[in-house]
Every structure is written in structure tokens, then in C-alpha cells.
Amino acid sequence: MNHCIFRIFVVLLAGLACLTQGCGTSGEVKERLDLVETVMDQNPDSAALLLSEIDPSRLHHPADTLRYLLLDNFVRYKNFDDSLDLDGLKRAAEYFGEHNQPHNAMLSLLMAGRVQTLKNMHGQAAVSLLQAAELAEKLADSYYEGLVHYAMYTLYSDFYDSSHQLFYSRKAFEAFTRAGRPDWAEYARMGITISYHNAKHETKALEEAEVLRKNAVELGDSSLATRALLMAAISSADSLPHLSAKYYAMALETDSLLFDQNDWYVLSDLIDKNGIELFSDSARCDIARVRSHIDAARSCKYYAERGDYHEAFRRLDIYVYSQEQLIERLLLQNVGGSIETFHDAREQAVVRERRAERTWSYIWIFFLFMCIVLILLWLQAKTRGARLQRKQYMVDVERLTSIIDGKDSVNTRQTAIIKELFGARFQTLNRLCESYYEDKNDRRVINTVKNMIQETAEDTMTLAELSAYLDRYTSGLISDFRIDFPDLRPEALRLYIYIVAGFSVRSIAVLLDCAPEVVYNRKSRLKKSIDKSCASRRDDYLSYL
């Protein structure tokens, strides 16, 4: 009897020990996941590194497993990674909802709504986001309430529904203001500005854009300030062309890379209607620099007025195709079937479909007219001198053939240089750096590898040779970089050379004798320095970062 009691006692002690060990592991995982959630908003790269240190196969508790999946999807989304698990997010939302974890349930629904929006599942996305908004309001979490409403604004932007856009962007602005997040509040104000513009309230849109620009400058957000200038320019293009030209000039001077297709279109239309003389001399130089973008955004009407009917027809065909895609998306989605009627959207789709049919009729009429005009032109050209035209064609063909042959030769040389650049020597150096981390527990391997790496890294001849290789296939990029940034520290110069050469972050960390996190920070500072510079090849430098 005593022997049996002793056995039972031993079994209970063993179970208690296992339970204690499991709780300790679960607590450690929870702390690490809490840290990931804390940093993922502002530093998604760091959050990804923290998640990579967690082995998901060792997570046995469903709450830990699903929270890991949730945060992993969040971090992937923030890092623009499309490999998102929608089914896993749905499971997480159901589990956290059933187990009374409203915060995690709200995060799961918010992330699921974003993914569904990306996948054009707009009805389901609206349901998920509304459920997330309800949970955020119950939790009195103004920040996430603002994120949910901003996601709803993005959802309705796909349908050009300006009334819902304005409603949700305002709610997002109010929530971010309550949460004490002026940065996000100003992005919501950008949504308000766009909504006013889409609703044809240009005066209100201009007022909001001017306030947005002022606040963005105070926050030090140059990108947002540039977008505010663009919205101000678009909103005043019809009523105040001189003011619009001023805003466009300021935006071009700040950052023309932020211009999208619609910005180029409005700028092109402004120039066509009022003339380039509307801009200052410095602004004309900026416009000349980006003239190809403006030409690419011109409407079919512009080319039709100048007699280039082939190009006019092509651009009209592109416009009609985009309208058809929008109509198809509106017809396939049924947002109101889940949260509201959505009959108005369907009626709008029918109206647009009829407009599309009329547009196709106009296109056929225009096509027949074009055929007649082309036939008349062809007959006229034939009577004037077909031989001269054929001769000119032959000259053009020979010129294009020589250009193509030259391009092929250049491409062949560049391919050979790139293969030579990433030859055995630098591949071996990259593998040595990776081996330094993989065999970190073997002291003999550490010393051997590190000595070999340091000898190569500190060899100025090797660095000069690497720079020469890079110059050969980048049109002298490294030499120009040295000239444009003569006061740059040697470590920063080496960092940029290694990045252009294609070394991994861990390899660069070994070559510079620092931690990978330090490489990320130095890379970020270097990118800011280049972005603020006035170097002629600034865009080329930034393309490698």
C-alpha cells in the first residue's frame, strides 16, 4: 500500500515539474512576442529579426502559436511581403474571440481585413474591419481604432466612394488625435483631403492640403509635405492655375519621385491649358528634367488635337480598359451584402457599364474615321513620292538596327563584367562571412575564418579592386560616389561598396567587425545623408539601398 502511494507521489511530482517547465517556456515566449508587438509598428525590420529567433515548431500552446502567426503576418505586411496567411488569421480571430482575448482578436481581424482588401475580397474585408472597430472601441484603444478606420478608408478608395472615404478618414483622424499620434493623424488628414477632392469640393481640399503641409513640415515628414503640395496643386488646377503652378514647382523641387500617374496627368493638363510660361525659370528646368513622365500622362484629347490619331486611339483604349476593370470589380463585389445594402454602388456600376458601351461606340466611330483619314493620307503620300518615303524608311531601319546591335553589345559586356565581379574570390569571401555565423560554436573555425576575413577586409588593394569592378558595370558609380561625398567616413564608404557588391547583412557585419543591427542603423543613416544631398546621381545611389 505504501509502495503504491509512493509511486503516485512520484508521478505527481514529475507532472508538476513538467507543468512548471512548460509555464516557464510559455512565459518567455510571451515576453518575446510582447517585445515584437511593441517594435513592429515603427521598426518592422527589428521585429522580423526578433521573430526569426523564435522556433515556431517549439510553440505547443495554441495561444502562442496563433499569436506568433498573427505577429508574423503583421511584420510581413509592414515589410511589403505578400506571403500572408489569411486562413491562419481567421483561425486566430476565432480562437482569441472564443478565449476572451479581445486585443489579439482585434489585431487578427484588422490584419485579416487588410489581407482581404489586397485580395479584392472587399465584402469580407468590410465585415472583418467593422468587427475590429467594435473591439477597438470596447477596449478604448484609440490608436488601433484609428488604424481600423484608416483601413476602411483604404477599402472604399478602391471604389471611389468619396462619401464613405470622407466618413472613415475623419473618424481615423479623430481617433489618432485622441491617441496622441500626430504623425498618423496627418496621414488621416491626407485621406480627408483626397476625399474632398474626389467629392469635387476643391476649396475644402485646398484648405486641408495647406494645413497638412504646414503640420508635415513641423513633424519633419518631407514625404508627407510633398504629397500635401501635390494635393494643393491638383485642387487648385482649374480655379487658380498660377497657385497650382506654384505648388507643383515646390513639389518638383522637393521630390518628383512621389508623383504618381494622376499627378503627372493633372500637371500635363495644366501646362497644355495655360502654357509652360506659367512656371518660373527654375520650375521649367525641373519640368524639362521630368518631361518624359508628363508626356506619358497626356490624354488622348491632346494627341487627337495634334493629329496623332494612332497615339490618341491607343490612350483612349487604355482609359476604356481601366474603366472596364473598375466596373467589373464593382459588379463582382458585394460589400452591402454583409454590412449594408450597396444597391447604390450597383446602380453606379450599371451606369458606368452603359457609359462604357457608349464609349465603345464612340471608339468604333473614331476607328472608322481614323481608317478613312489614314487611307486618304496614304494615297496622298503615295502620289507625292513613295520612293522618297521608302528610302527614308530604309535609313530609319538601318539606324535602329545599329542602335539595337550597339545595345546588344553593351548588354553582353555588362553581363560579362557582372559575372566577373561576382567571381570565385568574392563569393568565397561572402561564404566565409556566412560560415562565421554558422560555425560560431567552433573556436578553431572562428579564429581561422575571422583571420581570413579581416586580412581581406583590411586589404586596401582588395577594396580598390572591388571598387574598380563595380565602376566597370555601374558606369563609374563608386568613383562618382567618392567625388560627391568626399567627407564621408571610411567605414561608411566601405559599407556602401559592400552593399553595391551584393554582400549580405551578416557578411557586411563581419567585414566591418560589428553586429548586424549596427549595419542596419548605419545603412539607414547613409540613406538619409544621400537623400538630403544634391548629388547628380542621387537616384542611382539610392537605388542600391
Description:
This protein is mainly alpha-helical. Helix content is 81%, strand content 0%. The protein is built from 26 helices and no strands. The longest helix has 79 residues, at 343-421. It is globular, with a radius of gyration of 30 Å. It starts with a helix and ends with a helix. The model is unreliable at 13-25 and 341-346 (pLDDT under 50).
Fold topology:
Elements: H1 2-39, H2 44-52, H3 62-78, H4 86-98, H5 102-118, H6 122-139, H7 142-157, H8 162-178, H9 182-198, H10 202-219, H11 222-235, H12 241-255, H13 261-274, H14 281-289, H15 291-296, H16 300-305, H17 309-332, H18 343-421, H19 424-438, H20 443-457, H21 460-473, H22 477-484, H23 490-501, H24 505-511, H25 516-532, H26 538-543
Helix pairs in contact: 1-2, 1-3, 2-3, 3-4, 3-5, 4-5, 5-6, 5-7, 6-7, 7-8, 8-9, 9-10, 9-11, 10-11, 11-12, 12-14, 17-18, 18-21, 19-20, 19-24, 21-23, 24-25
H and E order? HHHHHHHHHHHHHHHHHHHHHHHHHH
Q: Mind describing the biggest β-sheet?
A: none
How many helices?
A: 26
Class from secondary-structure proportions? mainly alpha
Low-confidence stretches: 13-25, 341-346
Approximately how much helix is present in the residues? Answer: over 70%
The count of DSSP E runs of length 2 or more, i.e. the number of strands, is: 0
The percentage of residues in β strands lies in under 5%
**End-to-end span in angstroms?**
75 Å
Shape: globular
Using only CA atoms, what is the Rg? 30 Å
Mean pLDDT score: 78
